[in-house]
Every structure is written in C-alpha cells, then in structure tokens.
Amino acid sequence: MTRTAPPEADPTPQEPAPAVALHTGTSDLRALLTRNLRTSGIYIAFVAIVALFWLLTTNHVSLSPGNITNIVLQYSYILVLAIGMVIVIIAGHIDLSVGSVVALTGAVSAVVVIRGGNPWWVGVLAALVVGIAVGAWHGFWVAYVGIPAFIVTLAGMLLFRGLTQEVLDNISLSPFPPAYGKVATGFLNGLLGGNGYDAFTLLVGAICVGAYAVSGFRTRLARIKYSQPVESFPLFVAKVVLVGVVVMYFAWQLAHARGLPIVLIILGVLILVYGVVTKRTVFGRQVYAIGGNLAAAQLSGVKVKVVNFWIFVNMGFLSAVAGIIFSSRTNGAQPAAGNMFELDAIAACFIGGAAVTGGVGTVAGAMVGALIMAVMSNGMQLMNVDQPIQSVVKGLVLLLAVAFDVYNKRRAGASR
To answer: Which residue of 249, 269, 309, 388 is surrounded by the most CB atoms within 10 Å?
Structure first.
C-alpha cells in the first residue's frame, strides 16, 4: 500500500490578515473616497463654485468682506430651515409648509410687538410658541393619524398662508423696534479691540478651528479603536489644515467688514446642537433608522409615532426661528413672506447629500448645500443675471444632485 507523504509546511510564517485596514494606502484611499463620494463631492463642488464666481465677478467682489457678510445675512434663514428639513428628509418625509410657517410666525411677532406695543422679546416668544404649535399639528396628522407628510404639509402650506393674511389683515406691518432688528442685522464688534479689524471675530474663528480639529481627532481614534477604516494621518492633517484656512479666511473677511453677525452666532449654536443630536443621541439614531428601514426600526422597538411627532415639532420650532430672523431682517411682516422658502430648503438638503428615499444626510451636508445655493444666487445677482435664468440654473443643479444620488445607489447595488 502506497502511503502519501503529508504536504510540506510553508516555511514562511503567515500573519493573519487584518479584518479592516486601519490606515489607507493608495487603493484604500480610493475606496474610502468612493465610499464617501456623496459627502466629499459636495465639498469639492462648493469650493469649485466659490472659485468660479470669484473669477467671473467684477474685481473678484464675490469674496470681498462686505459681500461675504451680506451672504450670511441674506441667506441665514434658509440655513436654519435646512437644518430642520434635513432631519425631516432623513426620516423619509418632506415638509412643504415651512415658507408659510415663516410668514405666519413673523406676522404673529409683528402683531404682538408693533400693533400690540409689547417688548421685542415677547414677540419672539409668541413666534416660537406658534411655530411649535404648528409643528405639533403636523406631527399629529402624520404620526398618529397616518396621513403622508406630503399631503399634511401641502394642506399646511395653504392653511397657514391664509392664516398669515388673516393675522395681518392682508397688509404689511412695520417697523419693528431697533432691538428686534438686531437679531438679524446686529454685529458684535470691538469687544477685544483690533487695529482695523475685529479681534473677537478672529478669536471665535480660531476656537471653531480648534474644536473641529479636536472633534475630528477624537472621531478618528474611536474609529481606529473599533477597527473601522480611516484616512492616513497626513491626509487627516491636510483636511484639518484646509478647513482651518477656509474658516480663518472667512473670519478674516468678517473681521474687516462689520465684525461677527449675531445671526451667525445663532446659526452656529444651532449647527452645533443639531450636529450632536443627529450623530450622538438615541433620537438621532432612531431618525436614521426610520428613514433607512421603517419595518426594521419598528421591530427594533423604535417608537416610530413618537419620533415622527417630534421631528415635525422640531421643524415647526426652526421655522419659527427662521421667521423671526426673516422678519427682523426685513423690519416688518408681509403676507407674501417666505414664498418658495420650502423649495430652497429642500434643494439645499438634496444638494448637500440627503437621499430621496431617506436614511441618508447630515446637518453639515445640508449647510454646504444651502451655501452652494446662496453663493450661486449671490454670484448671479452680482453678475446681473436675469431672475428667470437664475431659476433655470438652480433647477438644473437640484436635478443633477438628485441624479447623482440615484447613480450612487445603482452603482452600490451593482457592486454587491
């Protein structure tokens, strides 16, 4: 009987392959960028659009200190709306009523302050209460009655526009007292001095950069701890440096204009709070779960009705904040205020990477999407582009953003 010799052992010691590559080489970096194409692409697009209008506008005025300040003041309320709208979209809903709610809350504030003679802060509180009540109204019909959010908020768009006209007797109401106007047009300037610039604005910018670097480093360490892929350390440092340069340039321009806008402080606080809420709280994870897979979320014990209710309450609250900012900037309330704001907010979210089907999106992405809309609108105005052409360009950009999302989904499905 012939005995077969056992196979010889490989003399070269074999190390077990790591489950996940922690530090990316060229191929890993390509995979990482591909996997995050929706997120990384929007930042590249934003930089490209800013550079384009810098080249096209006369004397590069689009990046002048005064114009950067104007962009912040003119589009702050759209940024606020986009924060709430992205949460609604992540959960798989839509809200078509936010423009009408902006008008209604501004009208209520004007009636309380201008017609009623109350202090400015009473008008602010009244607007917030009305916004929260509107959100609870929408949340009840969507969450507990089960009517699709598209229908509920479409009805709300008509309902609250009509209530705005009733509250104002279909006429404009102005002016607000100066203290109310400072909400959207006031500045913090000269708190720390400065020779031709505002040192306080630069300090705030530096603090923001430092906070971003620390947060990014902690996130990186956490991902490494759980064997998740991260970019190489030089790439991480380059990203932090790039963000730091952009933020400090922005702060430098503001410091040489009128200082730090109060509305930018309000917006910064909202971005920080809602960034934490969506990424680091149970509520935020439940919103993503509902939008990603409703059936799985229900089986996992997520109280879907409660979460949906509070999503719309939050949207009503942020619509009221936007209404206060808008009425403060225009120094009055008009029956037609907030017209088409809902479309700008929705477009900002989709351009910023939110998925049409829900489950995907970030507050930061929505902010970048809103800034892209703001820079495009501002740049085209500086170039004296006709309003119809501006609408055509915005529509094409929105269509391409959604097409890009669909393309990503198809490619991801084909690769499985």
So the answer is: 309
- pTM, two decimal places: 0.84
Last residue of a domain, one of 257, 283, 304: 257
210 and 125 inside one domain: no
Both structure tokens of 352: 């910023």
The boundaries of the domain holding residue 376 are: 53-189+258-404
Both 93 and 185 in a single domain?
A: yes
Tens of pLDDT, residue by residue over 242-287, are 888 888 888 888 888 778 888 988 998 999 999 999 988 999 999 9
